[in-house]
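Session log. Operator J.P. requested a structure for one protein chain; no other inputs attached. Running the standard single-chain path with token output.
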Amino acid sequence: MIHYPPVNDKFENSDFTNIFEQYGVEKVVYGHLHGPSLKHVFEGKQNGIEYIMTSCDYINFDPIKIM
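Structure written below.
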């Protein structure tokens, strides 16, 4: 879990995504985005890693199951 998005608003790889890939991370859960920033949500699979955005206003304060 990390607080900030793992990529920038252009969805480019970052030092975070590089480290996740290097260490075989399977899922990354993050939040922080609110309001207008929700148009920059990065979710889904990339390079074998599932990225899940869990900001409360993004998920409408409805808990999601992460397995």
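Operator note: Residues 15-22 form the longest helix (8 residues).
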